[in-house]
Design a protein that fits this description.
Order of helices and strands of chain A: HEHEHEHEHEH
Radius of gyration of chain A: 14 Å
Largest interface: A-B, 37 and 39 residues
Strand order of the largest sheet of chain A: 2-1-3-4-5
Strand content of chain A: 15-25%
Oligomer: heterodimer
Largest sheet of chain A: 5 strands, parallel
Structural class of chain A: alpha/beta
Radius of gyration of chain B: 24 Å
Shape of chain B: globular
Largest sheet of chain B: 7 strands, parallel
Helix content of chain A: 40-55%
Number of strands of chain A: 5
Structural class of chain B: alpha/beta
Number of strands of chain B: 8
Number of helices of chain A: 6
Order of helices and strands of chain B: HHHEHEEEHEEEHEHHHHHH
Strand content of chain B: 5-15%
Distance between the termini of chain B: 15 Å
Distance between the termini of chain A: 24 Å
Number of helices of chain B: 12
């Protein structure tokens, strides 16, 4: 019945942090998440870390997907993680990073609290399966 | 999670929300949206803290500029030192239930300012431009202490009128060139406006759109029922002219022209919103509206409860699919089934009444007492 449909849905924020100039990939992933039945908040290009934190807290998302191609991930992503921690949201938000991340930068991001890094060539199905399996139980 | 845990989590959330913690507010809204176990108790506890906020609805067709206008509105309220809550609703997929909520992108003026709390909501399958959880989310923001709460509807179109049941003041955005003057004769969205906003007023055709709306409003004053906005409380007296219509007798929806991208006309828009609010208070219409709103809330809850009861009853009789198949194969028809199912329910209610008259002590021992469950407002188990 109707109320059944209104039960918990996986909420994701898809965010572009920093100076990247295009968001084709973010559009593709937003659409794919939508088709997987998720509720996707898309916050647009050129977000500052604080903006992303604000959006993630206000929207109470289960999953935060950060898309970044500019190479500034090692400074911007930890800032986001710190911001989430400040609001007590770090523990139960699944944080994913998508983009071009060199192998040697990965451990630092993971130790900052990023759950998974999806590089170029990752299939959408894989990403969706990961979200389904790992979205936090609340 | 056990019920006791729920209760303590809820108490903690409520305390956090009332103390102004953003994450608690966000979490409460999620519980409301998800209809998490015990969410009704949570909303009940919010009620005593509500009633202070101005609730403004913004509606209009897709691409009319609602998000940009809401953004500028929020910015202006913030400049005046008022706190703002925004609920932005976007459509959900009828197939997957998924949604892309993109209104945040246009709300950049207040980024970094936590006193503007923007919450995106999916319509979650409901029609009419609002999620069923919207009214409760408004309660949460009101209890949190927001001065102004702005609801931006889906933008679905001509029949998006649910907003009048939730907002006290409704602004309808009409972009230039949105159809000929016949559009203004149609029933629906244009009837619910307390304020008309011709947004994108720098575009060709804005003057004509304003003129068409003027004519429509003028025509409305010729009849006895229209001309008082959507509330239908005061009627315009026969001798009223456009000049004196804006007094205690009725509300004549003003038309403001805005260019949301540049902020032009926003001040005038704000003044009209404030004027409408003053009108509501000076005429006692605000009390009337609140009464209607609460009545509607009670009805909605009762309908949900009764729905759950019926759903359980259907499950007990073998499920809706079996019944639907029976109709498909021509054994019976939907009307007969509905009658049969309701007959049981009516019999139970009648029995409950009878027992209530005879002996109220025995009543509580009676199992499966449908009437009693409904009246106590218990949440049916799912």
């Amino acid at each position: 019945m109707s109320t059944e449909q209104e039960e918990a849905s996986i909420r994701c924020l898809v965010a572009k942090v920093g100076l990247d100039g295009h968001d084709r990939g973010a559009h593709v992933i937003s659409r794919a998440f939508r088709d997987a039945g998720f509720e996707v908040v898309y916050s647009g290009l050129h977000n500052a870390p604080e903006e992303i934190v604000q959006a993630a807290v206000q929207e109470d998302v289960d999953v935060l997907g950060i898309s970044i191609l500019s190479g500034a991930h090692d400074t911007l992503v930890p800032k986001i993680m710190d911001g989430l921690a400040e609001y007590g949201a770090k523990e139960d938000t699944l944080v994913l990073v998508g983009g071009v991340i060199p192998e040697e930068d990965r451990p630092a991001l993971e130790s900052a609290g990023v759950a998974q890094i999806f590089g170029p060539g990752t299939s959408i199905a894989e990403t969706i399966a990961f979200v389904r399996e790992n979205a936090p139980e609340r | 999670m056990s019920g006791a845990d729920d209760a303590s989590v809820h108490a903690e959330l409520l305390e956090g929300l009332l103390a102004g913690e953003h994450r608690a507010l966000a979490r409460v809204i999620s519980k409301i949206e998800d209809r998490a176990p015990g969410y009704r108790d949570l909303v009940s506890d919010l009620y005593p803290h509500t009633g202070e906020a101005d609730v403004i609805g913004i509606t209009g067709s897709p691409g009319a500029g609602k998000s940009t206008l809401v953004d500028k509105l929020a910015e202006t309220y913030r400049d005046r030192g008022e706190t703002v809550g925004i609920i932005a609703i976007d459509p959900s997929s009828p197939f997957t239930g998924g949604a892309v909520l993109g209104d945040r992108i246009r709300m950049a003026s207040t980024v970094g300012d936590m006193d503007v709390f923007v919450r995106s909501m999916s319509a979650r399958g409901t029609l009419g431009g609002l999620s069923t959880a919207t009214a409760d989310a408004v309660k949460a923001m009101d209890a949190f202490g927001k001065d102004k709460i702005i609801i931006e509807t889906v933008g679905a179109g001509q029949n998006e009128i649910d907003i009048v049941r939730t907002a006290e003041t409704v602004a309808v955005l009409v972009p230039p060139g949105s159809g000929d003057d016949i559009q203004t004769l149609k029933a629906g969205i244009l009837e619910i406006a307390d304020v008309f906003v011709v947004n994108k007023a720098d575009r060709d055709g804005a003057d004509r759109t304003v003129q068409e709306l003027e004519e429509m409003i003028h025509l409305g004053e010729g009849t006895s029922t229209v001309g008082s906005g959507h509330h239908g409380v005061a009627t315009v007296a026969a001798d009223s002219t456009p000049d004196d219509a804006n007094d205690a007798e009725g509300w004549r929806p003003p038309i403001v022209e805005t260019v949301a991208t540049s902020g032009e006309g926003i001040e005038a828009f704000l003044e009209e919103l404030a004027a409408h609010r003053a009108f509501l208070e000076s005429t006692g219409t605000r009390t009337e509206l609140a009464r209607k709103r609460h009545a509607e809330e009670i009805r909605t809850l009762l309908r949900e409860d009764v729905n759950s009861l019926l759903e359980a009853e259907l499950e007990r009789t073998g499920g809706i699919d079996a019944l639907a198949d029976a109709v498909r194969t021509g054994e019976t028809d939907p009307y007969s089934i509905a009658d049969a199912v309701l007959e049981d329910l009516e019999a139970c209610l009648a029995e409950a009444d009878l027992e209530g008259d005879l002996d109220s002590e025995d009543r509580s021992e009676h199992e499966g007492n449908l009437g009693e469950t409904t009246l106590e407002g218990d949440e049916p188990s799912r």
